[in-house]
Amino acid sequence: MSLTDLLQFLAASRKSGTLRFDRGKVSKQVYFENGLIVGSKSNDPREYLGQVLLHYGKVDDNQLQEAREIQRTTGGKLGEVLVQKGFMTEDEVLDILKTRTLDAIYDLFVWNEGEFEFYDDEPLPEDLILIEVEPTAVIMEGIYRLDELARYRTMVPSDRSIIELNAGWTSSLKLGKEYRRILYFVEKRMTVGEICYQMHASAFHVYGQLFTLINEGVARVSGELPEESAPKVAAVEDLPESVTEMIWSAQRKLDNDPEAALLIIQKALQQQPNNADAQRLLVDAEEKFVQHVYDNILLPRAIPQLLVAPSDLTLQQIDPQAGFVLSRINGSWDIQSILSICPFREADCLRMIRDLLKRGIIGLT
Question: What pTM was estimated for this model as a whole?
Answer without folding.
Answer: 0.83
